[in-house]
Amino acid sequence: LPHPIVTFSDPEGYIDSNDYAPLPLQSFLECTYNVTVYTGYGVELQVKSVNLSEGELLSIRGVDGPNLMVLANQTLLVEGQVIRSPTNTISVYFRTFQDDGIGTFQLHYQAFMLSCSFPRRPAFGDVTVMDLHSGGLAHFHCYLGYELQGAKTLTCINASKPHWSSQEPICSAPCGGIVHNATIGRVLSPSYPGNTNGSQVCVWTIEAPEGQKLHLHFERLSLNEKDRMVVYSGRNNKSTVLYDSFQMENVPFEGLLSEGSAIRIYFMAEEARATTVFNIRFEAFEKGHCYEPYIQNGNFTTSDPTYNIGTTVEFTCDPGHSLEQGPAIIECINVRDPYWNDTEPLCRAMCGGELSAVAGVVLSPNWPEPYAEGEDCVWKIHVGEEKRIFLDIQFLNLSNSDILTIYDGDEVMSHILGQYLGNSGPQKLYSSSPDLTIQFHSDPAGLIFGKGQGFVMSYIEVSRNDSCSDLPEIQNGWKTTSHTELVRGAKITYQCDPGYDIVGSDTLTCQWDLTWSSDPPFCEKIMYCTDPGEVDHSTRLISDPVLLVGTTIQYTCNAGFVLEGSSLLTCYSRETGTPIWTSRLPHCVSEETLACDNPGLPENGYQILYKRLYLPGESLTFMCYEGFELMGEVTIKCILGQPSHWSGPLPVCKVNQDSFEHALEAEAAAETSLEGGNMALAIFIPVLIISLLLGGAYIYITRCRYYSNLRLPLMYSHPYSQITVETEFDNPIYETGVS
C-alpha cells in the first residue's frame, strides 16, 4: 500500500510523482519523499520535468538532524536544475488541493561525496588544504612573529555533514619570548593586553648562532607617551643600549646592529592602547659581511647572496607602488666593518600618477596601510589608440565621507562611469576610449567620521569589439562552442580523440575583460591501462602501480581454487585507442566445480589409485585381469573445460586369444593319450588294472590343471571389482580433520 512518506536508499534513482501518488490528509493531498545515502555522501537532485498547477507546493529541503532547510521550491524549479543537499539526507515535500488533474514531476537523484567547508584562514597566517573530503588534512601556519594558538593540523571527520576535527586555530603575537639560533624573524606588538589594569611588560631575547651578528629593521614604530622600548646589545639590561624611546625621538632609519650575537628588547606599557603598534624585523648575518637588506612591498636582486664586500643590491617595487626615500641600488663597503653605502629605499603606493602600460595596478595611498585624511589624488590611464580600458575594482572599503569617482576620458569633467563611497563589492567597468581618469578624495575630518581600509584595482587594455578572440584547434582533439559569437560568457569546450587524455582546462570562458579564463589545453596520448580489478579468491602482483605500458599483473588463486584464463596480463599500447591488457581478467573457480567425475570401471578390469573426483591435468590408469587384454587408452587425462571432460573414452578388457588357443591344444593332446592306453589294455591284460589306475589318475590330474588355468579368472574376480562408486560411508574424522 502507498504511504505518505516514501523512503529511498539506493545510490541512484528517480522520484516520480506518478509512481507514488499523494494521499489525503485533512483538506489536502500530500506526500514526502526522503532519500538517505551512506554517511559522508550527499544527495544531488536534477529536475527532469515539473508540471504543477497553481496552489500546489513542491519543496526540496536539506535534513540536518531535526532541522530542515529549504533548498528550492516550485517557484525556482526549472528543467535541468541541480540541487545538492549539505547532508546525507534530502527531503522532497509535495502538497496539492486538487482532487483531479494533480500536477506531476520527476526528479533524478544520485549520491555524491560530501566535503568539509574550506577552513577559515587565520588572520596573520595561512592554511594549506590537502583534501576537503573525509580524512583530508588542513595544515595551518603563522607569519613571522606570530604564534599558532590551537591545533596545527585539522582532519575532515566523516559524518552526515562532514566537519573539521576542531576549531580553526588563530595566530597571535606573543608578549616576549626567547629565540635561539635566530636566522630571520619579527618582534610584533602583543595581540592581547597583559594585566587586568592594562599594564604590560614584555621582554624578547634574540640569540644568533655563535660568530654572527644581528640587524634590527624597524618597519613600524608607534608608541604612546608613557610607553617605553629599550634595545640592548646583549642578553641582559646591563648590556650596551642601542635604542631607548625615552631618550631618542626616532629610531635610525638604517636600523640597529648588535655588537655581539644577542639582542634584548624591553617593552613596557602602563595601559594597553590600540594605537601602540610596532613591527621589528631581525636577521642574523656573518661578521665581515653586510646584513641582508629588506624592502616592504617590493623585492630585490643581488650580485652575491652572502653579501660580501662589493656586493650590489637592486630594488624594485610591487605593482601599484613606487620607489622613494633611497636609491634603487646600494653597495656593501668598508672591509674592516662592512656596511651598506646607503639605506634601503621604501616602496609606497602613491597618491595619483600617469599610467601608460598595457596593464597595471592602482592602489589607495599608502596601501596596505590606511590612507591619510585629506588626500586628493588623480590617476590618468592611457593605452593604445585602437584600444579601450577594462577596469577591475577588486577591493573597495571607504568611509561614507570619502569618494572614489571613475571618469570615461582624460579629464575629471568627462562622463562618469561610476562613483563609490563606503563598502562596495567588486566592480567591472569599461571605457569607451583609450583614456580613463580615477579621482579619490578623503575627508580631512576623517578622524571624526572614521576612514576605510582603501581600495585595490587593476586595469588592462582590451579590444574595442565585444568578443573574445577565437581559440585554435588542438591536435588529436576537437572543440565545440556554446555561442556562434564569442561574447562575454561564451564557452569553448575541448575534447580529445580516443586514446588521448586532455591536459589543462577542458572548458574555457570568455571573461568580462574579453580574455579567456585559461590557456587552451592539449591532448596527450594515454600511456597507461585502467586497473583491470581484483579477482575473487586470488592474490595479484603488480610490477608498476601507475599501470604504464609494459606493466604486468600476475594472478595466483588461493588454495582450493583453480585459475581459469591467463594468469599474466600485460599492458600494451595500440596505434589507435587507449592501451589495453593482453587478455581478459581470469577467474578463480572452485576445484570441485571443474573436476572430472570418476568414469567407472571397465568390465574385467580395475583402476590404479581410484578417486571420486579428478582435477584438470590429473590422470587415471586402467588395468585388466589376467587372461584379458586392454583395448583403448591405458591412461586418460582430465581436460579443463566447462564442464571438464576426459581425454578419451573408457577402455575395454577383452579375452586374450593366445591363451585361449593354448588351452584348446592341451585338451586335444589329453584325449589322444587316453586312446593309446585302451589299446595297451587289450594286449597286456596283466598290466590293465595297473595301467588303468595309473592312466586314469594321470589323465584326471592333467585335465584338471589345464581347465584351472583357463577358467580361474572367470570364477574369481578382482577383490575391488564390486566397488564402482565412492562409498557412502561418512568418515567424521576425515571430514573434520581430527586425528
In short:
It is built from five helices and 60 strands. The chain has about 750 residues and is mainly beta.
| CATH 4th-level superfamily of the largest domain | Spermadhesin, CUB domain
What is the architecture of the largest domain at the second tier of CATH? Sandwich
Largest sheet features: 6 strands, mixed
Say what oligomer this is: single chain
What is the gyration radius calculated from CA atoms? 49 Å
Transmembrane segments: 679-701
Membrane topology: Single-pass type I membrane protein
Protein name: Seizure 6-like protein
Main location: endoplasmic reticulum
Structural account:
- Helix content is 10%, strand content 42%.
- It is built from five helices and 60 strands.
- α3 (657-683) packs antiparallel against α4 (685-715).
- The radius of gyration is 49 Å and the shape is elongated.
- The two termini are 59 Å apart.
- The chain has eight domains: 5-113, Spermadhesin, CUB domain (Jelly Rolls), CATH 2.60.120.290; 125-172, Complement Module, domain 1; 177-347, Jelly Rolls (Sandwich); 350-463, Sandwich (Jelly Rolls), CATH 2.60.120.290; 477-525, Complement Module, domain 1; 538-592, Ribbon (Complement Module, domain 1); 595-655, Complement Module, domain 1, CATH 2.10.70.10; 667-714, no CATH class.
- By secondary structure, it is mainly beta.
- Strands 1, 3, 4, 6, 7 and 9 form a six-stranded mixed sheet that branches. It has a five-stranded mixed sheet with strand order 17-19-24-21-22, with no helix packed on it.
- A hairpin with a 2-residue loop joins β6 (57-64) and β7.
- It comes from Vombatus ursinus.
- Keywords: Disulfide bond, Endoplasmic reticulum, Glycoprotein, Membrane, Repeat, Signal, Sushi, Transmembrane, Transmembrane helix.
